[in-house]
């Protein structure tokens, strides 16, 4: 017969309580059941663990066995508590793969709310371009992805919001001073800085501007720093530009209806870890009205 955790728990209770009756009361069992469990345990060990039938004093072997049994019972208790915590989303990990603009403009209030309700859950968030987000999901290195991507086989996709593209420049730029919507002709001959989101703009008139761009900067933070410093101008979706940044101006496009569509992508919820499911619920609640605000 294999040693069971109940045998160890019973043995430890008898040692700690000093009698069969007290141990039985603690365990919610009858004294005869506790006695039978101890007998089975000693038979498996092959030697007596108590010096007397009253079970009040351990043999030298019993002392050594008790030390090991106590550690195993405590470890088992911690394991059960951890498993229960994972199942209730009290512990665990959420792996996010998102585009940089999502990381800076969308997720801070979501994460703040989630951390308030799930303080022991670890969040692993990595920002990258949309193609990399898709690769991370397909390789199962991310639980949740937020990007402008399609849903591959076996994944669920939900539109979070869409926002229009516009010209981003320094406030002192002539286009910002003019204050009007910007046409494609206004960008001809300008120092245009390309970025990864430009691929979403399919207007034929934009293609020559993109081809002539002297710079390409995929990282949003670096891109905005260059624009802020007057190095050039770029095109970005509205939510990719901080509203309170006085060093940047966002100007609408006059001749284009180009928009960025941002999707929430994950495996079917029933396959996600509890912590990831809980994060999705918070994310959807916090972003429920985003579609109506741009």
UniProtKB/TrEMBL annotation:
Domain of life: Bacteria
Lineage: Bacteria, Pseudomonadati, Pseudomonadota, Alphaproteobacteria, Rhodobacterales
Example of a GO MF term: DNA binding
UniProt-listed Gene3D superfamilies: 3.40.190.290, Winged helix-like DNA-binding domain superfamily/Winged helix DNA-binding domain
Location of the HTH lysR-type domain: 3-61
This protein's name: LysR family transcriptional regulator
Family of this protein: Belongs to the LysR transcriptional regulatory family.
Pfam families assigned to the protein according to its UniProt record, in alphabetical order: HTH_1, LysR_substrate
GO CC terms, sorted: cytosol
Keywords attached to this entry: DNA-binding, Transcription, Transcription regulation
PANTHER family: HTH-TYPE TRANSCRIPTIONAL REGULATOR YBHD (PTHR30419), NITROGEN ASSIMILATION TRANSCRIPTIONAL ACTIVATOR-RELATED (PTHR30419:SF8)
């Amino acid at each position: 017969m294999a040693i069971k955790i109940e045998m160890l728990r019973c043995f430890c209770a008898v040692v700690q309580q000093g009698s069969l009756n007290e141990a039985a009361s603690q365990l919610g069992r009858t004294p005869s059941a506790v006695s039978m469990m101890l007998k089975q345990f000693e038979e498996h060990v092959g030697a007596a663990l108590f010096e007397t039938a009253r079970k009040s004093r351990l043999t030298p072997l019993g002392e050594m066995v008790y030390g090991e049994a106590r550690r195993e019972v405590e470890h088992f208790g911690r394991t059960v508590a951890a498993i229960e915590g994972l199942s209730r989303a009290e512990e665990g990990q959420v792996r996010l793969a998102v585009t940089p603009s999502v990381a800076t403009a969308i997720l801070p209030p979501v994460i703040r709310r989630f951390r308030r309700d799930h303080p022991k859950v670890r969040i692993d968030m990595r920002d990258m371009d949309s193609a990399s987000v898709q690769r991370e999901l397909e390789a199962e290195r991310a639980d949740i992805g937020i990007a402008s991507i399609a849903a591959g086989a076996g994944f669920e996709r939900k539109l979070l919001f869409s926002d229009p593209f516009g010209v981003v420049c320094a406030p002192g730029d002539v286009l910002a001073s003019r204050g009007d919507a910007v046409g494609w002709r206004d960008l001809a001959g300008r120092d245009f800085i390309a970025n990864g989101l430009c691929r979403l703009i399919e207007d034929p008139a934009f293609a020559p501007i993109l081809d002539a761009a002297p710079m390409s900067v995929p990282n949003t933070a670096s891109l905005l720093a260059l624009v802020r410093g007057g190095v050039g101008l770029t095109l970005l979706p509205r939510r990719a530009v901080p509203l309170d940044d006085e060093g940047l101006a966002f100007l609408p496009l006059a001749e284009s209806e180009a928009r960025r569509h941002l999707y929430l992508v994950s495996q079917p919820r029933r396959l996600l870890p509890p912590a990831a499911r809980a994060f999705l619920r918070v994310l959807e609640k916090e972003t429920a009205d985003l579609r109506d605000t741009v």
